[in-house]
Amino acid sequence: QVELVESGGGPVETGGSLRLSCSLSTVSGRSSSKYAMGWFRQTPGKEREVVSAISRDASNTYYSDSVKGRFTISRNNPEDTLYLEMSSLKPEDTAVYYCAAKRIVFESAVLDRIAQYDSWGQGTQVTVSS
What we know:
By secondary structure, the protein is mostly beta strands. It contains no helices and eleven strands. Strands 2, 4, 5, 6, 9, 10 and 11 form a seven-stranded mixed β-sheet that branches. Strands 1-3-8-7 form a four-stranded antiparallel β-sheet, with no helix packed on it. Strand 7 (71-76) and strand 8 form a beta hairpin. It is globular, with a radius of gyration of 14 Å. The N and C termini lie far apart (40 Å).
């Protein structure tokens, strides 16, 4: 069983920056290095969408077109933490941001679809004001 806890959300002005964090813990004590991870976001009335994803070993990353060049995903496996650095924020980035994880075998594989993940955090709200 995996527990994911996001933090770092909040209000920010257009053009500002935020860093989201997601801590991973397991009952078995298994390291986050065993998990592919990603960030997703959702606004009311819309489907959850992928923002960014990263492989187990951080060698590969994925970004949606809407955030490419503005957001950076990273992970610190020894500290079991996933990050999302967000800059040049726009009002359309306003959403609840969710962290997700999936234990996989391949260290360099990136999972960029919602259906590929089986563990989710509770979400953290990001609100970008114009």
